[in-house]
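Below sits the subject:

***
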Amino acid sequence: QLELARGDPATADEALDRANKIAAENLVEARRSMAVLTAERPSLIASLSAAIEGVRRLGQAQVVAQIDAAPEPPPEVAHELLRICQEAMLNAVRHAEASVVRVTLAAAPGGGVRVAVADDGKGFDPDVVTRGFGLAGLRERAGAINAELTIVSEPGAGTEVITTWAPLS
């Protein structure tokens, strides 16, 4: 955003405002990350709701949330599910140019949790290797908690990132 402000004086104010919003969100996120390290850990629902509000405040896409009752996973699982959801939401806004992002949290079979982020953005081919850390990071986070990660997308048709976790039997 700061590079955009430097490049075009006509849009500099807007880019600087957006950079300030992103910085404020990062501060909130840093504080939330510190809370994860303390004994008082917010629930997945509370953390996810706060992350959704953060993306809403960016004002670049409408974020629609459906948060259903779901079992509370262990703290390390909740942390990774939250991070996967945040990355998917931010990818929808930053890269997919989505106008609507839908986030759902629901119970999954076996006492688990299912988190999905769907957008109406420009989509992509998930089988094409990308240079960035985004998809690899999502897969790594899901693997770290033995969760199933499904990415459904195609150019021009939006994207859905679905993460399903269940406790090991």
